[in-house]
Write a structure and sequence with these properties.
The protein contains 18 helices and 19 strands. It is of the alpha+beta class. Strands 6, 10, 11, 14, 15, 16, 17, 18 and 19 form a 9-stranded mixed β-sheet that branches. A 5-stranded mixed barrel has the order 1-2-3-5-4.
């Protein structure tokens, strides 16, 4: 009893009032956390079955249903009440009165609050205004809500509450639920797209001894029994390419990556990536496949190759535009070719634009910073930017006609990078030399440079078939395809700074 009083004292009066109602309902024989109620219909199923029937037809058929959900609205009268239930598919109106449900049940129902989860059984009818409604003969308390929903919860807009307490956001905003339903559809479509093309879905380690496959700062943890540091993966790439060595010729993985970087409208430290690798192919094959994937996905979602993102019409009608990285700097970014070809002049320009670069930053890295500021914002319709400098692409195969560039592309959509791919480097000598260059950068303080992975080199020495691989940012793609302004809108539980009191 003392513990209960301590808990009640730590909450506000609204909580205590609801707790008293809970106790009163228990005394009336109701279980406030009941587990045995089986709905026969969802709200959507009710409308599918009876939505087209007239009041007279409903009266004649007496269609019985059992539905369950959260009470989100209530109008109580002397001996009757209207209420709305929200379930996983939508909402439906219910009606309860003493004459039909009985005096004891109606008395208990008067203690139901907005937010409670209940089940009701009864038959369907239409009200005077024509609304399809369940005439409740029996109601069941399934879960008593001890906290009232926030003020103005219907249409909840407070970003702090929406992101920190996503469950309230999902209750209050039907459009948010639709975003995550569409996210699920998108992932399912991508998965089936690759399975239909004989790709094998695999799982590779999330905790890795050496974090590789991307230029990023990892999260580090420690394994007590193994007595060693482990790193949350920044990419699954090097493990997936080991599978190519092992004989799996088409593989893909959809999973979480972790990068110890900043948080913004397009970055979250924990994010979902899809990576796939295909033997006996190059980056041109992947461009064609990516073009087919994106255009068919948009057609599936919108029955059109066009859709709107933040007021701009995006057209994914194939073929997509293709432009080289260096050409884009001059023709789209408006950067003088002499600046592009001079590391010193490019470094000066990048710094004037606000880029924070080390004095020994590679030329390619400098140009990349300029690209992000001058070219990327203009790439609204899908565009393949191809042939990147080798010094920012340590895992990609060199171009035969220009060894300073690699066979790599990035796909841009709505001004955002959504995919990165290349013909995979399978020369173990060249890979070793590039890892050594990355190791020099790490030793001089660049904690995002690629780590040296000796076992991966060993795998390449056994022989990896010619192949191409690609990573697609699922969160960014979903963000664009759901017209969301921030990546946090498409991640159920995004990372946020602690509140001051936490």
């Amino acid at each position: 009893m003392e513990e209960l009083q301590r808990i009640l004292a730590s909450h506000d009066e609204f909580f205590r009032i609801r707790y008293r109602k809970l106790q009163e309902l228990k005394e009336m024989g109701y279980d406030p956390q009941a587990a045995h109620f089986k709905p026969t219909h969802s709200s959507t199923a009710v409308f599918d079955e009876a939505g087209s029937l007239s009041a007279e037809e409903l009266e004649a058929r007496k269609i019985r249903v059992a539905v369950a959900g959260r009470v989100i609205a209530m109008r109580q009268f002397g001996k009757a009440s209207f209420f709305h239930l929200l379930d996983g598919t939508g909402k439906i109106q219910g009606f309860i009165e003493i004459r039909t449900a009985g005096e004891d049940a109606f008395k208990a129902f008067k203690k139901i609050d907005i937010g409670d989860i209940i089940g009701v059984e009864g038959y369907l009818f239409r009200t005077r205004t024509g609304e399809l409604t369940v005439n409740t003969e029996h109601f069941y308390l399934l879960t008593k809500s001890l906290r009232p929903l926030p003020e103005k919860w219907h249409g909840l807009q407070d970003v702090e509450i929406r992101y920190r307490q996503r469950y309230l956001d999902l209750i209050a905003n039907p459009e948010v639920r639709e975003i995550f339903r569409k996210r699920s559809r998108i992932i399912a479509y991508i998965r089936h797209f690759f399975q239909d093309r004989q790709f094998l879905e695999v799982d590779t380690p999330t905790m890795q001894v050496i974090p590789g496959g991307a230029a990023a700062k990892p999260f580090v943890t420690y394994h007590n029994v193994l007595d060693m540091n482990l790193y949350l993966r920044i990419a699954p790439e090097l493990y997936l390419k080991r599978l190519l060595v092992g004989g799996f010729e088409r593989v893909f993985e959809i999973g979480k990556n972790f990068r110890n970087e900043g948080v913004s409208s397009v970055h979250n430290p924990e994010f979902t990536m899809m990576e796939f690798y295909m033997a006996y192919s190059d980056y041109n094959d992947l461009m064609n496949m990516t073009e087919e994937l994106l255009s068919s996905l948009v057609k599936e979602l919108y029955n059109s190759y066009t859709f709107e993102y933040q007021g701009i019409e995006i057209d994914v009608t194939p073929p997509f535009k293709r432009i080289t990285f260096l050409e884009s700097l001059t023709s789209i970014g408006g950067v003088d070719s002499e600046i592009v070809n001079s590391r010193e002049r490019a470094l000066k320009l990048a710094r004037e634009m606000g880029a924070k670069l080390r004095d020994d930053s590679p030329h390619g890295k400098v140009l990349e910073e300029i690209f992000e500021r001058t070219v990327q914002p203009h790439l609204q319709n899908p565009t393949f930017v191809v042939d990147f400098p080798v010094d920012i692409s340590p895992l990609a195969k060199r171009k035969p006609d220009n060894p300073e560039l690699v066979e790599r592309f990035e796909l841009y959509l709505a001004g955002l990078e959504v995919a990165n791919a290349f013909s995979e480097l399978n020369d173990p000598i060249d890979q070793r030399l590039r890892f050594e260059e990355q190791a020099k950068l790490r030793s001089s303080g660049d904690d995002e440079a690629h780590a040296f992975d000796e076992d991966f080199i060993t795998a390449l020495e056994y022989g990896m078939p010619p192949a191409a691989g690609e990573g697609i940012g699922i969160d960014r793609l979903v963000m664009i395809l759901t017209d969301s302004r921030s990546i946090r809108e498409v991640i159920l539980f995004p990372h946020l700074r602690k509140r001051p009191q936490e």
